Amino acid sequence: MLVITDAGKRISDDWVEYNVVHPGLTVKILEPYAADLMPISTVGKSSPSPLRHTVIFGSKSNQHKLEIVGKYKKELYFDNRFYGTIWSGDILIRDGSLSIDGKLVSPIEN
Fold first, then answer.
1. Which of 65, 13, 56, 20 is nearest to 38 (CA)?
2. Reported confidence tier of residue 91, pLDDT bands at 50, 70, 90
């Protein structure tokens, strides 16, 4: 399983952009620039099943976690809240909000 995460780049005075690739998904993360911005951290685990990809990002004072669980049918968790299941698509996280294929998504309460 190939998971690619870039080191991020500053796209303006106010924003930093990160790109993450998970099988079937492209994830773009836009975070407000902050002096205490942490380097992005990513961990992929395929054993024991299911495949789990955890991405930690943000500032030391406002840390975020994205978890993608599954190789084909993927469950999305952002900041420990469930956002649904997706097979493939584009995910955008901007300043704490999550969009799938251009549509803003709210957490799903169980």
1. 56
2. very high
Retrieve residue 72's tokens. Answer: 């084909």
- The secondary structure of 6-53, three-state, reads CCCEECCCCEEEEEEEECCEEEEEEEECCCCECCCEEEEECCCCCCEE
Confidence at residue 4, expressed as pLDDT on a 0 to 100 scale: 61
**Phi, psi for 74 (deg, rounded to 5):** -110, 130
The token pair that represents 61 in the structure block: 């004072």
Buried b / exposed e over 80-104, threshold 16 CB at 10 Å, is eeebeebeeeebbbeeeebebeeee
- DSSP state letter for 71: S
